[in-house]
């Protein structure tokens, strides 16, 4: 969430941040989403649309050598658009690192989302890779969006119990979740494979963000008609064009390009606005769908 310029104050330091009227993703799942069945919360298309945004934000942080270390449903905030746009917040436990795969040693996070290498420092004396730990947490989020529950029992509330439940859910196979994890949810083999690879206990085999982006499930077209299909098409087309912009530009060229991109979006029937602008190393456009309910 971007911070705004705070008003001057003599005795207090004020931080004014963007308001996320859609609330947290946890509330969105439990209060706003009508479950497909008692075994499944979101449809795969809806979950994919939101998860792509989450993954884009996490990838943006990792490319700048920042690991979040507390990714969870409560820290994924939404605006009031239909479908919602995602904001990743709460970087209080985040960690910057100087080079790729610099390990951490502090046990931080929320137990239900913490990876086994973070939960079990005794068997990981060399620390853990915070980037791989973020990928595990993102896998828990995706599972929760689809199933409406966590992949591992967390009712006991302590770290050792969560670790035991993770080990039990893999039944001696670190590469795959046991059959009970899927229950009677009508999930595709592609998303099950992706979750298996994100929730791989073996960190050396855990999937990377680049591999997730290219995974079959992530590249599937939305089967659902309507707003989510159109929103994804707008976002992907804008992102594809934006990825071609790589030259470092001075301020005047940046402002001119920004205006041209915005005008082009309108001219080609893509209603929206430029939401992210991170010159000179990363320049991105995201469209927002102006959805009008049919009368």
Notes on the protein architecture:
Helices cover 37% and strands 5% of the residues. It has 295 residues and is mostly helical. The protein contains nine helices and seven strands; from the N terminus they run βββααββββααααααα. The protein is globular and about 55 Å long. The protein has a three-stranded antiparallel sheet. A two-stranded antiparallel ribbon has the order 1-2. The two termini are 34 Å apart. The protein has helices spanning 25-32, 44-63, 116-119, 130-147, 159-170, 189-198, 209-213, 227-242, 251-267, and strands spanning 3-4, 16-17, 23-24, 66-67, 76-78, 86-88, 95-96.
Q: Could you give a quick summary of the protein structure above?
A:
By secondary structure, the protein is mainly alpha-helical. Helices cover 37% and strands 5% of the residues.
Mean pLDDT: 77
Amino-to-carboxy terminus distance: 34 Å
In the sheet with the most strands, the strands line up as 3-5-6
Strand content: 5-15%
Count of alpha/pi helices: 9
Low-confidence stretches: 271-295
**Helix percent band:** 25-40%
Rg (C-alpha, Å): 20 Å
List the secondary-structure elements in sequence, H or E.
Answer: EEEHHEEEEHHHHHHH
How would you describe the shape? globular
Quick one: how many beta strands? 7
Largest β-sheet summary: 3 strands, antiparallel
Secondary-structure-based class equals mainly alpha
């Amino acid at each position: 969430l971007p911070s705004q310029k705070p008003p001057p104050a003599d005795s207090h330091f004020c931080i004014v941040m963007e308001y996320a009227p859609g609330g947290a993703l946890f509330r969105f799942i439990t209060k706003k989403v009508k479950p497909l069945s008692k075994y499944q919360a979101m449809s795969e298309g809806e979950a994919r649309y939101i998860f792509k945004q989450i993954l884009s934000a996490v990838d943006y942080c990792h490319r700048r050598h920042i690991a979040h270390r507390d990714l969870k449903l409560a820290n994924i905030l939404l605006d009031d658009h239909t479908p919602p746009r995602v904001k990743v917040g709460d970087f209080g436990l985040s960690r910057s690192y100087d080079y790729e795969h610099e390990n951490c040693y502090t046990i931080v996070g929320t137990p239900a989302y913490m990876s086994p290498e973070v939960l079990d420092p005794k068997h990981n004396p060399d620390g853990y890779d915070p980037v791989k730990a973020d990928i595990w947490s993102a896998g828990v989020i995706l599972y929760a969006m689809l199933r409406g529950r966590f992949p591992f029992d967390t009712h006991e509330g302590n770290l050792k119990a969560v670790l035991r439940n993770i080990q039990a859910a893999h039944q001696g196979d670190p590469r795959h979740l046991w059959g009970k994890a899927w229950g009677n949810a009508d999930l595709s083999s592609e998303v099950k494979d992706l979750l298996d690879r994100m929730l791989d206990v073996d960190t050396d085999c855990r999937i990377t963000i680049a591999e997730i982006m290219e995974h079959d499930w992530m590249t599937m077209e939305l089967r659902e008609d309507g707003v989510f299909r159109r929103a994804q098409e707008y976002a992907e087309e804008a992102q594809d064009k934006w990825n071609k912009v790589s030259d470092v530009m001075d301020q005047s060229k940046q402002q001119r390009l920004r205006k041209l991109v915005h005008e082009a979006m309108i001219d080609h029937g893509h209603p929206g606005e430029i939401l992210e602008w991170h010159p000179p190393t990363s320049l991105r456009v995201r469209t927002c769908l102006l959805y009008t309910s049919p009368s």
